[in-house]
Each structure stands twice: as structure tokens, then as C-alpha cells.
Amino acid sequence: PGGDGALPAGAFRALFETMVAGSADLVMICDTEGAVLYANETAQRVMRVDRGDPAGRDLAGLLEPASLQRARTGIRPVLLADGVWRGEMTGLADSTDHRTWAVTCQIHTEPGATTPFVAVVGHDITDLKEVQDQLAHQASHDPLTGLPNRALFQELGDQALARASRLGDPVAVLFIDLDRFKPVNDERGHAVGDALLVQVGERLRSSLRRGDVVARFGGDEFVVLCERPTGAAEMGDLAHRLLATLSAPMTIGATTVAVGASIGVALGAGAGTTIDTLIRDADAALYRAKASGRGQVCTFGDPA
């Protein structure tokens, strides 16, 4: 600062210190060993430091253990090597602090000084992260039932097949279509139909094996992903159990409705198997099941 129209150096420094002290961002200055030389009001609040100058306090006494470990093993080496570290941190105070901070740590050395210091600036991005998480969830889940949608199911299927390929295990897909949904939806109204689909999703989810995934593909179609099935017999037993679950009457307000389902099953393994192939094969088996009458199970590849 200086020259016409500029603040004197002392006034500029005082103004800068006032702005930093009251900033909503976390601002700290530490030495390279972690001793705190300065912390603004936000840093003192976040770090659970009594109001006043925390100079001399050590980060080891201010950070939650997991954050301290990360600072020592993940941040400090990068900082000393590159002079700067940028990333996200949570749990800056203790295990009850779940806020997320975008943090920048940068090494500075004053002209003529021999000892460097580390400037730490953190911006609270918790609300932004929550919005991002909500948008990601909405993009990958069915808005009515909360189940995974087709896109997420295919992603999870690809991952399951990659694991199966390494281990030599099969993967199964069950394609489920409700038998009497359209009459219920047409006669009782869309509100009853939507509530019915929610109950169907809940019943399917509660009837599956641990680790199985159920998704809604749209309309009254649901698809199940099963890893490491012992064979077609086990998947047949599971399919018939799901049929029994879906055949039981469902109460929606003052209305009781009964729908059944038909299920197609496909199993696959090996490098040539894709999730799209299993979905297609299970859908073909479902078509055969519905052609055979309501409440049927068909496995792809079985003789008609």
C-alpha cells in the first residue's frame, strides 16, 4: 500500500486483520510442526478453543484423532514436498463435528526469515455437499420408491460381474412384472397405484438375501441382482418366495388390493457376460412366464 488514495501500511494491516478475524472462513497460521501461531474467531469456534489468543497450542490437541492422523500422514508430506495441499476435511474438532471443509494449506516464508509458517484457510462446504449428494441420489434412484433406478442397477451389475469374473462366480438377474397392476391403477386411481408400487418395493427389499439389490425399472417392473448364487435352483426358490410375498393382499388406506407377479431368471458368468445380456435374458424368460399364465417363474435356457 502507498501512494495517492491508498491506505497507509499500518491502517491496511489493521483493516486486513479485522477482516480475517471476523471471517466466516477458518483461518490459521501454524509452524511446520503443528504449533498454532494464530487462529481467527471461526477457527477458535471450530477447534473448540477458548476465546483469546491460542498461540502455542498444538494441533495434536485440537484435531479429532482421524483428522490428526490424516494431517500427519496424508497432508504434511505433500505440503513439505509441494508447498501446498488442497482437499476436504471433516471432524476438525471431535467425533460429533460432521461438517465438511474445503481446506488449503500453503507454506510461506517471510523475506529475511529462516523459519517458514503454514497458512491454513478452510471454507465450510457442508451445505454444498448435501445438495450435491441429494442431486446424485435423485439421478440414481427412483423418486417414487427410493429404489435404485435402471442406470444405477446397470452400474452395480457391471461391478458385480467384474467381481464374479475374478472369483469365477455366477451372477443372477430376476426380472419381475406385476400381473394385475394395470386394473388396480385404472380402477382405484394413480394414488393407490403409486402406494402399491411403494409397498411392492418394500416387500421385495425385505425378502431378499443380504447383499442383493432390487431396482425399479419403471412402471410395474422391478429387477433383482444376486451375486454368488449357488445355482438355478436357489434362484428358483428365491423367485417363488418373492411371488408368495407379492401375492399376499396389500392394505392401502381403506383399500385392500391383491396383485401377483411373474418372474424371469437369468444366470451368467465369465468374461463374455454383460449386465445388459443378463437383463435381456431375464426379460425373455419373463415373457415366457407371463405367456404361461400368471404367477409363474421361468429361467432362461430351460426348455419350454
Structure notes:
The chain is of the alpha+beta class and 304 residues long. The chain has 9 helices and 12 strands. It has helices at 9-21, 41-46, 65-82, 126-140, 150-167, 181-188, 190-207, 232-247, 275-291; strands at residues 26-31, 36-39, 84-90, 100-108, 117-124, 171-178, 213-218, 221-227, 250-252, 255-257, 261-268, 297-299. The strands form 3 sheets. It has a 5-stranded antiparallel beta sheet with strand order 2-1-5-4-3, with helices on both faces. The model has no long low-confidence stretch (mean pLDDT 87).
Radius of gyration, in Å, reads 30 Å
Major β-sheet annotation = 5 strands, antiparallel
Number-wise, the strands total 12
Tertiary shape: elongated
Strand order of the largest sheet: 2-1-5-4-3
Q: Please estimate the helix content.
A: 40-55%
- Note poorly predicted spans: none
Beta-strand fraction estimate? 15-25%
State the helix count.
9
What is the helix/strand order?
HEEHHEEEHHEHHEEHEEEHE
Helix and strand content put the structural class at: alpha+beta
